[in-house]
Amino acid sequence: MEQLSLDPESIEGEALWYCLTCRECTFYCPSGINFQRFMMALRDSLLARGHTKFAMFCPICKSYTMPKKEFEYLLKGTDLEKARDLLEVCPQCKKADYVKTLHRTAR
Ligand code: SF4
């Protein structure tokens, strides 16, 4: 991104966070541009600069999990309260909790 002299501060907006990182654009791009990776790098850059308005974070470890739009999309049509707990926690914290539960039940 720095090679392109792009200023993330000037493009902060919700549209950037609509990308679901599905890689469809990367798959079909005739020029082989990995646009999905570009979007992720741009978001990382914004997060590093403290732009967290459109991002979701794990309630346990506080790491970035997904855009708020994606979270809302995933919750649509689901049992909200059960799905919210499951979706908010990042994969690493879910795994740690799962392992803790396994050890507790194995005793
Ligand atoms: S990865 Fe590409 S096609 Fe998929 S949502 Fe993001 S920009 Fe759109």
Mind sketching the topology for me?
Elements lengths: L23 H5 L6 H14 L6 E3 L6 E4 H8 L4 H9 L2 H16 L1
Antiparallel strand pairs: 1-2
The chain binds iron/sulfur cluster.
Our measurement of the CA-to-CA distance between the termini, rounded to an integer number of angstroms, reads 51 Å
**Rounded average pLDDT:** 83
Principal-axis shape equals elongated
Got a strand count?
A: 2
How would you describe what is shown here?
By secondary structure, the protein is mostly helical. The chain folds into two domains: 1-53, no CATH class; 55-107, no CATH class. Helices cover 49% and strands 7% of the residues. A two-stranded antiparallel ribbon has the order 1-2. The termini are far apart. The structure holds iron/sulfur cluster.
Feature tags:
single chain, 107 residues, mainly alpha, two-stranded antiparallel ribbon, 2 strands, 49% helix, 7% strand, binds iron/sulfur cluster
In short:
The protein is mainly α and 107 residues long.
